[in-house]
Specification:
By secondary structure, this protein is of the alpha+beta class. The chain has three domains: 238 residues, no CATH class; 129 residues, no CATH class; 165 residues, no CATH class. A hairpin with a 5-residue loop joins β22 and β23. α2 runs parallel beside α7, α7 runs antiparallel to α8 and α7 packs parallel to α9. It is globular.
Length: 638
């Protein structure tokens, strides 16, 4: 029976150009989108009758362009008609796409990425129709499948310069088959009737059927008939980064960490393998991978969650009584929360469902406790309800996604989960003020903090006041802790101490007296010459640790580790609320054991910053609550 490309068409259909929203939604990070979507679909299709993991493989090769099935139909017929159709419409975007399409078909070879899954049901009749023939819906094996919107099937096409994918499947309940799908553009296919327009999707199939019997392999090894599952062949695989193999592994770890650790998923990319046994080794290798700023943040979160899931000091919680009021929750074991206290914690909770796929990070749980955690809906009813709250990309839970009758229940459930997270974190890790230094992980700085009680006593005995009423110059060779405020009302007091204050002398003009004062002040280090200052943010050049010494008194210690030298820096401190809001802290007092400090109006400046030499600063703020604080550092340039 003849095999050919079929372009469904009809009268007065709406033409579709190259701007396909479902494909474009995956173009921001094509490798990550592809990996997430195909793994999700494969986990959804897992054979339930065994406990073996789903295995997904990625293999790369090149084939002759002439080996594309039905290439002559596309090149000689569909492409010229499409070019003519869109040339008349003067649609530049679609014409540019068709120009690129023609250039790819003219090349001698094209790149092919083969993605295969094993231990899945394959494409049975319903799932085949939804994947190949349908649009905007999907058929899942059960209600607890990871995906449900039918949008993710566009991800492979976003990775093809031709938007061309072939599916080959060995299903559990029917014979092997394959089909080609081309997400093309509309065109007029009847020279006698301009109203006859094609749909954008074309199928390579047998004329009387929706598929072609038997397998197709594009020079890869064919499946054994006992190896149930599906192969995707992305023809014209777009030229991506040289390290695309590692980026597939990175995406798998970021999005399916729980599935991998529970031995529900194995991933192989060419010769690199990822499973529950070697995930720690793969993570170490991925730490060396060059990443974008966003990728660094995501991977740092993954490291937090991996630690929470594997650390023997983790805490585990089941749902509490409030959740038993929901009809879809059968028992407290329907949800599980894992928490871990750690240094450099991301203060977020990874939220997942039964499939183990990452949905999103729940933040703003606590702003002053260093923790990380993982929540997983393990009950079938709870999992199904949460799935109904997911957006099309499965990256959020929102009550707006619920049906009208479930919207109030959804809003209450999400709030109860959030409150439960907060309560578990607070009851597990909230500490007394005297324990805060240990909680923040200041092991490297313990020698700097161990004698604070003695120093506080000495400060009381020294008679230092909390506010500056006058300035005295005390020569002390043993201390570098200095604070001065060279403003006009203190100048006369200084000069008087040195018998240099202005005496009445009609013989000396005021200008000469003023110059004398100026010269004296400069020699004393109080140069009052006004210059325009420029503040340049240099926070990135400092390691910053802020710890509470006595929060009831508003006393904190800031330790800076500079990566380069600075002559003068300006310090600002902010309170960070549990909801992420930032409020500037009012500094009532600032001293330093290591550097000269000065006050300029309401700002505090630190002088002579040396590279790799710690700067120790003690501050007193306008709050007696234990607060999370952050620092901002500006270089003073004149």
């Amino acid at each position: 029976m003849a095999k050919k490309w079929a372009f469904p068409h009809g009268r007065d259909l709406t033409p579709r150009g190259a701007n396909d929203p479902s494909i474009n939604s995956f173009l921001d990070n094509v490798i990550d989108s592809l990996t997430r979507e195909v793994i999700q679909n494969s986990l959804d299709a897992k054979i339930k009758e065994n406990n073996n993991p789903v295995e997904i493989t990625f293999d790369f090769d090149e084939i002759s362009t002439r080996d594309i099935p039905g290439i002559d139909e596309i090149y000689d017929t569909a492409l010229p008609l499409a070019e003519e159709f869109w040339r008349k419409k003067e649609n530049i975007g679609t014409l540019e796409y068709l120009k690129s399409f023609r250039e790819v078909l003219r090349s001698d070879k094209i790149r092919v990425l083969k993605i295969s899954d094993f231990n899945t049901y394959g494409l049975n009749d319903k799932s085949y129709d939804a994947l190949v023939l349908g649009n905007g819906y999907t058929e899942k094996i059960d209600d607890n499948a990871a995906g449900s919107k039918g949008i993710g099937k566009a991800a492979p096409f976003a990775n093809s310069d031709l938007r061309l994918v072939f599916y080959n499947t060995v299903p559990t309940n029917s014979s092997p088959k394959h089909v080609g799908v081309l997400n093309f553009v509309s065109f007029n296919c009847d020279a006698d009737d301009e109203t006859i327009v094609t749909q954008e999707r074309a199928l390579y199939k047998e004329e009387q059927y929706k598929h072609i019997s038997g397998q197709i392999n594009f020079n890869f090894k064919s499946r054994d008939l006992s190896q149930y599952g599906t192969d995707l062949f992305i023809l014209g695989f777009r030229d991506t980064e040289d390290d695309w193999e590692k980026r597939i592994l990175l995406s798998a770890v970021n999005n399916f960490l729980v599935s991998i650790l529970e031995n529900k998923l194995i991933v192989r990319v060419n010769n690199a393998r990822l499973n529950s046994d070697n995930i720690s080794e793969v993570i170490r290798e991925l730490e060396e991978l060059k990443k974008s700023p966003d990728e660094k943040i995501i991977f740092k979160n993954t490291l937090n969650y991996y630690d929470a899931l594997t650390n023997e000091n983790r805490l585990e919680f089941e749902l509490d009584n409030r959740f038993l009021a929901y009809p879809f929750v059968e028992s407290k074991s329907d949800g599980k929360l894992i928490l871990l206290k750690r240094e450099d914690a991301n203060r977020a909770i990874l939220q997942t469902r039964i499939s183990g796929m990452k949905i999103y990070d729940r933040r703003n749980v606590s702003g002053n406790i260093l923790f990380t955690g993982v929540f997983r809906a393990t009950g079938i009813g709870l999992d199904k309800f949460l799935k109904s709250l997911e957006n099309t990309n499965h990256t959020d839970w929102s009550s707006d996604q619920a049906s009208k009758e479930d919207r109030k229940v959804a809003k209450k459930l999400l709030k109860d989960l959030y409150d439960w997270y907060k309560e578990c974190v607070k009851s597990s890790y909230e500490q007394n003020v005297e324990d805060v230094i240990d909680a923040i992980g200041m092991k490297d700085f313990l020698p700097l903090l161990s004698s604070d009680s003695e120093k506080n006593v000495k400060r009381k005995d020294s008679g230092i006041k909390n506010s500056i009423n006058s300035v005295e110059i005390n020569r002390n060779k043993n201390k570098t802790n200095n604070l001065y405020n060279p403003i006009e009302k203190e100048v006369d007091s200084i000069l008087k101490d040195f018998n240099l204050d202005n005496e009445k002398d009609d013989r000396k003009p005021k200008k000469e007296t003023s110059n004398k004062k100026k010269g004296i002040l400069e020699r004393l280090g109080f140069n009052q010459k006004t210059k325009e200052e420029k503040l340049v943010d240099v926070t990135q050049f400092f390691g910053i640790k802020i710890v509470a010494l006595n929060s009831k008194e508003g006393q904190y210690r800031c330790i800076l580790k500079p990566k380069k030298e600075f002559k003068e820096i300006d310090l600002q401190f902010n309170f960070v609320g549990e909801d992420g809001t930032i409020t500037q802290a009012i500094i009532r007092e600032l001293t330093s054991q290591s550097n000269m400090v000065k006050k300029s109006n309401t700002d505090f400046r630190v002088l002579d910053i040396n590279k790799d030499k710690r700067v120790i600063i003690d501050i007193k703020v306008n709050s007696n609550l234990l607060m999370k604080m952050e620092g901002k550092i500006n270089e003073i340039k004149i």
